[in-house]
Amino acid sequence: MRIALGIEYAGNEFKGWQSQHHGNTVQDTVERALGMIAGESVRLHAAGRTDAGVHATAQVVHFDTGAHRSTTAWVRGTNARLPAGVAVRWAVEVDEGFHARYLAYERSYRYLLYDAPVRPAVLAGRVGWFHLPLDVESMAVAAAQLVGEHDFSSFRAASCQGKTPIRIMHEARVAREGSIVTFDFRANGFLHHMVRNLVGALVMVGKGGRLPQWIGELLVCRERAKGAPTFVPDGLYFCGVSYPPHWPLPEGGRIMTRPCFVMV
User: Fold this and answer.
1) Domains defined for the chain, CATH in brackets
2) Is residue 105 helix, strand or coil?
3) Most buried of the four, 1, 86, 170, 239, by CB within 10 Å?
4) Residues tagged active-site
5) Contacts of 195 (CB under 8 A, 6+ apart)
6) pLDDT in tens, 40-99
7) Cis amide prior to 212 (ω within 30 degrees)
């Protein structure tokens, strides 16, 4: 049978999502725990890969198994064998036509930035930080230029393996609540380091280093070297995946797409 899972994790405890030889990744950790419940080796397929230090509130995965277990066993049993920084939130049986990656038509990320003179301690590793006051209104104007179908080469890591830099951005928003500046991005897909590079560029606008129209200029020039430095991963959350509504996933197949709830 094929099982789909919703997974939440704190990325600062792991070396990213994707399996590595050292075994200290989210995928390796969850596969080991699931294997104990299944009584056999398990291989996960995820909706998206996250780098070291990046968190997730709504990662979706699937795996195939010959073991017949209750959904309670896949959730509570697996969680009993996982470290505190990762948890299975739900489990559902799906037919073999479901694929966590290839059927996802939309993904959402949220970046949380602590904007204050002194770096945070309690929130260390869970939020980014910038020490100067940021002009959120200018950042919001700049972010609006990202909406639509664009070539995002200026925001793409050199190591990116994506076949094309073209992505469709459905939403790009910047807002402030107290000392927290929130960046929300929703698109049909993302390039390697794309969100962190977008945040870096928007922060450049927010601190007055560039005018809002610079974001549009970066889209046109398609040169990563002309963009801003890649922002730290600490405040980045993979927080939503959308699937066609006929798949029997929680919330009708739309998993926390908008808003992405990360409370601080």
Assistant:
1) 2-103+243-255 (3.30.70.580), 108-237 (3.30.70.660)
2) coil
3) 239
4) 51
5) 109, 111, 183, 185, 236
6) 999 999 999 999 999 999 999 999 999 999 999 999 999 999 999 999 999 999 999 999
7) no
